[in-house]
Design goal:
alpha+beta; Fumarylacetoacetate hydrolase, domain 2; 6 helices; 19 strands; globular
Length: 311
């Protein structure tokens, strides 16, 4: 029985963990054996046990006449409002690399893909509080930016602690997958007054970590329901115009390879998230950027659909 894990706002205004079965949501803490799981982080911190309990509960709900909360009536928050850490993979889709080549100044024409992306995946760290927002959020444009760009990404949610794991065993540590839009203020990435030879010229905080920069959701689809994370279609629309249309098979480095690389010198903990890169179709490649009032819609096969707008 398929189910999803989400966070919703209760009538008392609190954030609560819910399980979605068909079109109804059930408070996780009210389910057998799960009274201690008031939040999604509670679920992930005990993932080996809670996964089975959630699966059993979903089957029981599906077979009974249980009445849940209608999904359409709920305010959904980001599935993990405060994840432990967010790691973002750069230059990880072959179609996106080809798209961005013409925009890289002084790049030799004969440069190889290996010279562009390296022998291993590369990640940067994003901020969490303030940056992570949920479905339906009206994201404010960062001050001073006229080139706000979209980047649909499949986000991996870690379910069990991973340190120095092999790529062959890496997926055993994944709880599930969700959708993220790694919004980018392209025109705020460089401090123009600083000489180009200075390594501190790039401003990652202003470029990537402004308030609302990471819309996520609408829920987590358990990894057990995704037979192969490298065979999923992903699409993004701006005002119902299709902008990104690709497949996770286009990744340079797979989910498993990214987990293996990150865990080499850094322990990954339950609730950490890995954004796995974006495909071709970003605004920078078109010279088109997000404006106030724009509506963004994203869909990843087997995972779900996420929407937000620009305030």
């Amino acid at each position: 029985m398929d189910y999803q894990i989400l966070t919703y706002r209760t009538v008392a205004g609190e954030a609560a963990a819910g399980v979605l079965v068909r079109s109804s949501v059930y408070n996780v803490a009210s389910l057998p054996g799960l009274a201690h799981c008031r939040t999604v982080m509670d679920i992930l911190n005990d993932w080996r046990d809670t996964e089975k309990l959630l699966r059993d509960a979903a089957r029981s709900i599906d077979a009974s006449a249980a009445v849940g909360l209608p999904l359409a009536d709920l305010e959904l928050l980001a599935p993990i409002p405060n994840p432990g850490a967010v790691y973002c993979c750069g230059a990880n889709y072959t179609d996106h690399i080809d798209e961005m080549r013409p925009m890289l100044k002084n790049l030799p024409q004969n440069i190889t893909k290996r010279e562009l992306v390296g022998d291993e995946p590369w990640h940067f760290v994003s901020t969490v509080r303030g940056s992570i927002v949920g479905p339906g959020t009206r994201v404010p444009k960062p001050h001073g930016s006229q080139r706000l760009d979209w980047e649909i990404e499949m986000a991996v949610v870690i379910g069990t602690t991973a340190r120095s794991v092999s790529a062959e065993r890496a997926l055993e540590h994944v709880a599930g997958y969700t959708i993220a839009n790694d919004l980018s203020a392209r025109d705020l990435s460089i401090r123009p007054e600083v000489h180009e030879a200075i390594p501190f010229r790039t401003d990652w905080i202003t470029h990537k970590c402004f308030d609302g920069s990471l819309p996520c959701g609408p829920w987590i689809t358990p990894a057990s329901q995704i037979s192969d994370p490298q065979k999923l279609d992903l699409k993004l629309w701006v005002n119902d115009v299709l902008m990104q249309d690709s497949n996770t098979s286009q990744m340079v480095y797979s989910v498993a390879q990214q987990i293996a690389k990150l865990s080499t010198n850094k322990t990954l903990y339950p609730g950490d998230m890995i954004l796995t890169g974006t495909p071709a179709g970003v605004g920078a490649g078109r010279g088109v950027f997000l404006k106030s009032g724009d509506k963004v819609r994203m869909r990843i096969e087997r995972i779900g659909e996420l929407q937000h707008s620009i305030a």
